[in-house]
Amino acid sequence: MTLHALVHRVVDATPPTRDRAVDGLRALAIGGVVLGHWLVTALVTDGGTVRGASPLRFLPQLAPVSWLFQTLAVFFLVGGYTAGRPRTLPYRRWLAARLTRLLRPVPPLLGGWAVVVAVLIATGATDRTVHTLVKLVLSPLWFLLVFAALTAATPLVARLHWQWPLSVVAAVDVLRFGPLGPQWIGWVNLAAGWLVPFCLGIAWSRGALAGTLTPRGSAEGSGGGASGAGMSGGGSDPAAVRRTGWRLLLGGAAATVVLVRWFGYPASMVGVPGEGVSNLNPPTLTAVTFGLAQCGLALLLLGPLRALLRRPRVWAGVALLNLSAMTVFLWHQTAMIAVTLLVDGTRPGLHTVPDTPAWMAARLAWLPVFALVLAACWAAFHRFERPPRRMRIFG
Q1: CB-CB neighbours of 134 under 10 Å
Q2: CA 16 to CA 311: how far, in whole Å?
Q3: How far apart are alpha carbons 102 and 93 in whole angstroms?
Q4: What is the 3-state secondary structure (H, E, C) of 242-255?
Q5: What is the widest separation between alpha-carbon atoms in the chain?
Q6: In contact, 214 and 220? CB cutoff 8 Å
Q7: CB of 25 within 8 A of CB of 78?
């Protein structure tokens, strides 16, 4: 199939009522996670052992990199939007379809890496090497588990206001960082923290941002299941969405600055090996306020994205990425690991300690190589994400 024919096939398969900006936000979130991991994750070769490191530990001035590429809140915002759309399918069938879509690509990843681990052990790899690599590969699965749990709980959380779980996050942090607070309580925020943007997404899908609500049974909010989840409408007044976007962006950013500047939270929005506190593992109040700012920016980008995605080739690329979203998400770390292990020698930006700006410059040069290997992984495994011989836009 030629590129021209593929573009037209994608465009012809797109319902005219679909809000392409939703898919655009999901594509931006995927790109942010992939590039973020590739930029701030280093695998250092040291005496036959591979260990993990991060340039953020040695070059803290690079913390803004994590602000650009830690886009998980946008994932949950779009996930809430998708889950909150009115359904024509019964809940159980709808949930089964959503979870199948999320989890179908996982067994090939686990099976492939079971073989890799066996080969590593047979060839004498150290326990630390195996642990480092397996941890990198399996770490994205926490996202899928939380996302799947929130999706399953949609009927229960649909009427929650996003400020309620935000209050839980704040209370948990007060206890966790208090003089006698148990550290384990921070894991409550693994659900509460990501519930904040998820609830925002549900409110957005139902026109409940800034109090503009369209009843679920109205014609404007009609749609169904996975195929209707990305359509426009939902009763949201564009002006109200923009106002909410500005409030979230400015309020979330201001709160994040206050928390980092005066309350001692880390500036990096991702975990840094060797640091005592991570904003992400488990999520802190700072990660959540930063996520609110990201959600606000995402809402403000809806108009520009709709205009951009009217271009057939741009839309085709975004739609195809959405069709393989989980494959790209699950295999991007494998692509980086494969390049690191298969390239001989000690190469800057690949095997060396990430402690200089030169390392970051060299890492940028490796990104196209990572992308090529990820494309090979996609070619081999994307078939597991979609039902065979069927093409439809990701919902």
Answers
A1: 16
A2: 14
A3: 14
A4: HHHHHHHHHHHHHH
A5: 66
A6: yes
A7: yes
213 DSSP 8-state letter: -
Rounded to the nearest angstrom, the gap between the alpha carbon of residue 74 and the centroid of all alpha carbons in its chain is 7
Q: Which residues contact 13 (CB under 8 A, 6 or more apart)?
A: 391, 392, 393
Residue-wise DSSP of 323-339:
HTHHHHHHHHHHHHHHH
Q: Count H helices and E strands in the chain, helices first.
A: 18, 2
Token pair listed for 2: 């030629």
* Calpha distance 104→282 (Å, rounded): 26
Q: How many CB atoms lie within 10 A of CB 276?
A: 6
| Averages of pLDDT over each 10 residues, the chain, 395 residues | 75 84 96 95 88 93 92 96 91 93 93 96 94 93 94 93 95 92 92 97 87 39 36 64 95 97 94 86 96 97 95 92 92 96 87 94 96 96 72 44
Identify the residue whose tokens are 């007060």.
Answer: 174
- The one-letter amino acid at 178: G
Q: What pLDDT was estimated at residue 381? A: 93
3-state class (DSSP) for residue 221: coil
Cα–Cα–Cα angle for 253, 184, 275, nearest 5°? 55
